[in-house]
Amino acid sequence: MIVYSPLLRNAGLSKQVPTPHIAIKSESHVTVELISSFDEVSALRQEWDSFIESVFSDIYMTFDWCRIWWEHYGKNRQLRIFLIYREGELVGLLPFFLQTVWLGPTWLKMAKMVGSDFTTSMVNLPVRSEVAYDVFTSVIDYLITKEGSDVVWFGPTGDSHERLNKLRKAIDDGSVAVLFRDSVRAPYTVFQLPESFDEYINSLSKRQRGNLRRDLNLIDRSFTLTQDVVESEDATKSEFEKFVQMHTAQWKAEGRLGHFHDWPLASDFNMRMALAQAQQGRLRLVRLLADETVASYQLCYAFGNRWYWRLPARLVGTEWDKYALGRIGLIKEIEMALAEGVREIEAGAGHYDYKVKLGGKEYTLHTIMLVRKQWFCRWRAFLFANLSDFLHFCYYRAWFCRLAPKLPFKRRPLWKIWIRTRL
Asked: What is d(CA 380, CA 103) in angstroms, rounded to the nearest whole number?
């Protein structure tokens, strides 16, 4: 039986608000504590992160990542953190938020996972497999029946087939909602690394090994090439600002804004995140130096036995473009990860030929959307989804990506309405 604790803790309120008990059929007794503030669970930071690592979830579900995301993007949203316990042991952790979003003449009250919009990260499902079906069933039922959500949206997730299939079965067997969309959004890339850098190089195709030797020989004739990693909190702020400037200059040369100007609040969010992860010993800002000049950066985070490659930056211009700094920077990042004993690098969403050619393997990111069964809610969801697709095509694909970069005026970050309504 899954039973909700009778207290919903609220940030800034001394009064505790009672919530109903919910039970479903299950062979084991599982309890769920429902919390509405990160302050209420700050003492659980170490347990939270240890659990995330134990179920092979990602750094994007760790306490500090979720907390900082919420501080930047939680305005006018309601937080609901589900902590699932079995016999006193944490077996599931699902941080959701609620928000009513209007799009033209229609609206939906959505329940989505913390971190699922405004940033380019995946949201996997940190729940132990043996209780996943019961947990998903109970959480969906609570979000629909008790919170009044029209839609519950999972993703983008690259989670294991086992947990995704249990989520799909929970939706199929449920009585309060129906599956509306089960989509493949985009690929994401993972580098599975061998035990040594020499083995990695030998695993590349003959052509890629030749290209790499040529690139390294070319730059070695002009510079002494070294690399290091910025990890300490003291060095992070000044070095991160230089990284942001280089990344922005790189994309400006291509007529685009770059990550820190594309996404609202991205500079502040990423700076805060880098400082917080440096405090935890997880920041890996890899620098490639040509003589004394930083020629490229690779922003990475370490969690478990994995690195998370977030963003690159490199010098541009006629003096530097001939040196293939992007490819060399990635190779040096892999070398340093292997020296640390890392066996896997998650390299972000989207298809990039050079990542695949250098040994990356692509996997699919999924989004799963379910809708309350009432006909009026399903009709609103149908209209909302079609308007969302229309907005995506007209605003993002046609305007933001194609037309705006060619026009001579100051560009602005992505529209928040597009970010919130993208399904």
From this structure: 10
pLDDT at 280: 94
CA 11 to CA 13: how far, in whole Å? 6
pLDDT tens-place string over residues 33-75: 999 999 999 999 999 999 999 999 999 999 999 999 999 999 9
Residues in the chain: 423
Note the pLDDT tens digit of each residue in 156-166. Answer: 998 777 889 99
Spatial contact of 153 and 125, defined as CB atoms under 8 Å apart: no
- According to the model, what pLDDT value does residue 176 have? 95
As a whole number of angstroms, the distance between CA 3 and CA 188 comes to 37
Grade residue 121 by pLDDT with cuts at 50, 70 and 90: confident
Nearest to 369 by CA among 169, 153, 157: 153
Domains and CATH numbers, the chain: 2-186+365-421 (3.40.630), 194-342 (3.40.630.30)
Rounded CA-CA distance 347/398 in Å is 27
